[in-house]
Structure prediction request, 1443 residues.
Amino acid sequence: MVSRRNFFAITLIMLVVVFMFLIPEVVKTRVNNYGQNEYEDSAATRFTSASVRIVSEDDAIDSSRFVVYIGDEEDDATGNVVKQWAVYSKRRLQSVHSVKEFQPNPRNLPEAVLIDSAFLNMREDISVLAGYADLGINLIFCNLPDVTEVSKNPKLRQILGINAIIRDSIRVEGIRLMDGFLLGGIKEYILDETMEKTQQDMDLVMPWYRISGGAKMYMHGMMEDEEMEKYYMMPKGDLITKNQNLPAVVWRNKYRNAMTFAVNADYLSGNGGIGILSAMMLEMKDYDIYPVINAQNMVVLNFPDLANENQAEMMKRYSQPLEAVFRDVVWPGLVSVAQQNDYKMTCMLTPQMDYEDGVEPEANVLVYYMKLFQEQNIEGGFSGTHTEEVNLSKKLNRDMSFLKKVMPDYAILSLYQGNMKDEEVEGALKQGRFDQVRTVFSDYKDSEPLVSYEWNSVLRQTGISDGYSHTFSENLRMLSIQTALGYSNIQIDVNPIAHPVDDEDSWEKLSRKFAGNTSTYWRRFRKFAKTTLAESNARIRRFLALDYKQKREGNVISVKISDFEKEAFFILRTHGEDIRQATGAEFEKIEDGAFLITATEANVKLELEEAQDRYYYFAEDEF
Amino acid sequence: MSMEVLTIIQVAGILTAYLTMTFVLPAILLYRKIQNLRFCERFMVYQMVGNFYMMNLVSVLELLHISNRVTLILFTIFPWAAIYIVLHKKKPVDMLHGGFDYLERLAGGQFGVRLFLRRVRGEIWRLLKKAVCALFRHIRANIIDILLVAALTAGLCYVYGTNLLAYFGYCESDLPVHNYWVNYLGKNRMFVAGVYPFGFHCVIYYLHEVFAIPTYVLFRVFCFVQNLMIHYVLLAFIKYCCKSKYAPYAGVFAYVFLGIFGENTYIRYFSSLPQEFGMIFILPSIYFLFVFFEKKKKREMDKRNAKAELETAVEDEEMMPLSEESLIRIEEDGIVKTELKAEGEESVKTDVEARKEEFWILAGFAISFGMTLSAHFYDTMIAGLLCIGVACGYCFRLFRPKYLGKVMLAGILSIVIAILPMVIAFLMGTPLQGSLGWGMKVISGENNKEVIQTVPAQDDSEGTQEDATGQNGTDQTAGGTDGATMDGTDASTGQGVASHQKSFPEKIVSKIQSAVAAFWGAMKIYIILDSYPFFQMLLIGSIVFLAVISLLFFVVRQTDYAARCLSLSAGMVALSVLQASSRLGLPTLMDAIRTCIFYAYVLAAVWSLCVDSVLQLFLGRFKKKWILHTASLAVLATIVISCYFQGWFRTPPVRQALQTNEAILCLTNIIHDNKDFTWTICSANDELRMGEDYGYHHEVHTFLKDLERKGRTHSITIPTSKVYFFIEKIPIMYGRAYRGDEPEIDKIYAQEPLPASSGIFMYQGVNRLIEMSKLYEWAQEFAKLYPTDVKVYYESDNFVCYCVEQDLYRPFNFAIDVGE
Prediction:
């Protein structure tokens, strides 16, 4: 027999338990406002394309951020990189097509002259460049003249710090990137047994320049000792400095009153060059502080597909329809990787790919995913990917009417360009189909800026890394962009899973690559903020709009930010100095000598540790 | 943390570690066995035992090549525990059983954890209370002594401690070489530079290894701990010799506080040197000899008295009836042991016990005497001379066979114990260390001519040469001005003989006069400053007075006390002969500059005994000893007050280091900031050995030579992540204090060719200036090439330390070609 008292207690406990489980669910359902895009307001900013800061000549005199480029800034290679970098680093760029066109003004000398060797007149210009060095103007050779020209020109070799040309052309096995140049530490781009051959996609053939004693190497070719000794006899006891004799790729030389930098490859002809230029600027001075975006995005393309398409193939491969594959296989995989690495995903919805099969997107599936998105702080965007057979206009009409019908209040802020042409995107935007879109996300192209305003005030962000692939070049590019902008976009296209072409398109293979790459190569950049496209959009707008002045007095660096809105991000790189305290900002250490500064006010003061601050000191030093 | 605070913490740590080994552990072990001894005696015994164990443990483990922290700790704890169990008759198995039973009961729930914890807490509290009570009891009973010892300690801190906080570097040039030898003990390579007395090094190594104290820190600050012990042992010895309680402090206070002594008598106290360490064992060895003669005589007397009483009792059987058992034992043993006299029976020990006690006393003498040799040969010489003094004082007993044989045997054994590790190493093929060979030549007389001939040349430069010789660990300086005086004396004597034929008594008088004159001259130069003629007279007077008063004590039948006084007086005469040996034309076994250290040290004992003997003579016959003690306190107070009003107290002496303070600061920080063996220091010299256990060192001279010779064709690299360059902007004048007029480094000096000298000479005088100027010039050029990689680690007006950080994948080629 259960006594009344016990009965009452048991009932009470059961009620409490039921309550405990029910209440969170009820609250979650009530609070989950999946019909609204949470980033619509939180990631809003007043800045538009008109706000982009173009550094004037006067500003350049004030801030001393002024560089000269000898070359064509409108080309799709080095010029484009230099131009982009100048905008991002808030530098005034003076572009000339020949050395003669630039006459240094002693009252406003540039920080550096960047040189595209194709625009050099080897007979006349080298001595002029030597004159620049006398004035203390640093020289950056974005690429080098042909090896025969270099060998014929001893003055140029002297400027560059080339001690000897061992071979006109040599194939190295890999490239080593030294510690402290780009963020991310030392990297060796050389294949080992565990790697696929496709991973090595760097240019390994180069002239073998041996740099002189006073030069400092940042990147060099790698080769076996035996291979090296075939061509170059090292003096005995010089094994320690072996690397100094290897084919130089990026290095610095001290010539007269200036530093000269040389890049013996085409690393400055793509977007990956911007970080190398930032790193070079740091190597010219005691410290460097520059604005960054501070955004790490993970963009899942064409997910979810709301229609149960490609049924036969899905049943064959996964024994379940697409909807179940996405819900039970792909989604958990994506979320676990995102959560493990603290990413916020941006998912580019594709209501359907095939508009002729009679299978229509299901509203309840969309609602299901939107609730999940809301719970996981995921931003929903729209994917413009379509098959060639489909009429784009028809697709957009049907998709948008479907979305409007199911979620009339959800603001689509991000659009994935997919295989839409630029004109098609522009047309769609003009027609008002995507009147709330702030970001157009597109695939990576070396010749296009990483972030820029396009189509009036809509921002373009490009994917920087493919989640399924991470070759050596891609890694170098990622490191470089992280160094210059603190910015990365990992894009994961799930369309191959819904419409596979071969065995490589199965989720188990793709997810392994994607999870492995994401967890491995971005690990060093955990201090950067994880954002959705809408959030990074706001950060980029603020980044492009702001300007800053900085000065150092003793161990205090003062930064004055103009056009400051809410927050701004900077990277401070020093040569071993640490920050003691910051006012008007917060700081986090990214790695030795690199700090992420989050400015919360327009005036920031960073107090560095005293150079002579030592753990032990003399008592008299205290007073 | 400031270097000053760090140094104080280091001193406290080292003192604690050293006292743990030489006081606490031996005391726990031996207290019960020797509790009948006075504290001053026990203190000397503990010192002897602790140091002896450390020295020999390290020696044995080193010779077996198994010396490391683990073995040292194991061989310290287990033998200690084993001896403790044996001496205290503990039953470890029973104790373990008991402990396990107790735990079993706890685990079985017979009592709870709370009760267990309460019991543990109660036990701890009980022990604590007992300890505190005992401490307070002792303090109350000896409050004046404690206050006086505290005053002495405070004085030592003031006199010898302040320099430690002002100068952080090594003050003697031979310290790096001792540091080097200790470093190699860590690699199980004893006698790395040849066979040499390693007692001091073993102790330093032991403290370094077991207590994880860096060797260079020990060498920097151990001198202070050593000084404390030297003075405490001196006090303990005098306390033993004196009859009154507070007269001992008179001599010790005079020695520590008065500014009357020549600089050479104490200047070496500012460095952790083997010779000074060995001083700890000189007086204990004399103490054991005193005890031996005293106790043996006492036992003989006791035995004789007992026998006489027995005979009287046997003859007068009726008057003093013996028990049956006693009579049986008398018949069996043929000797009276017990029950003859109720009061006396406990005091008469059995023969076995007596022999055992005698054995341990002689063992104590052998160990102490041996340790003087283990530490430094000069200490043995002094101990030997003082033993000669004891032989004079106790001549009426020594030359009896039962004394002489045993003492000689103990002496020989002590030498054997001390030199055994050296002999083993020598037989295993290790050659003698240079200075040892030199010392043996001096003893054998081979070096005498050379020494005497070189004396005049060394007249004024003794102090500096003392510093300069240290690099090889040799001490080759001789007797200062002595040679010249000796020659003069001889010549004048010779002329005198030629002109006037003296009678034999006149000759004797003349010899004594010249000897006294020679000693007077030596004493004025080395021991008591010329500005204190009273103390100069007092020095001579006290020795004579002690000899005379000892005769009085012989007359009043206070034989042992008289013998002690006479021993010290005779010992001082022997030391005086050594001090003036070169002036007297005798072989210079020890430089006068060194002898004076020991001389002043023993003089403190002589002065104390003089005061004590006077008090004893007049007040000693009173049975109430407090009269004597009070009088001694009054005399001490009078002496202190009068010295104060006379202005004889001294200010702390200053001994400048041979390194800049900044160099030590940088070294300490570098060790703190970096992982071991990830850095290299490029500096003139001393940091080579100081940082040997933590990082690498590169000689400035080698570096500059490489730059000049190899730099054109070869790369010059130093393959560590960080390379520190120590540059003295105002180079130290090696062996000379900063005066403010030292030249600064300059481009002019940088243009000079590199000095061709070697050894320490390339870092002396203008050579050092050239080396530092060249290094500074190079650093400036290198910083231009690599502005972001060369940082100023520390800079002051006279010193700069540059730090070059390099990626080991591309270490910098330091052979920069500036012209390129």
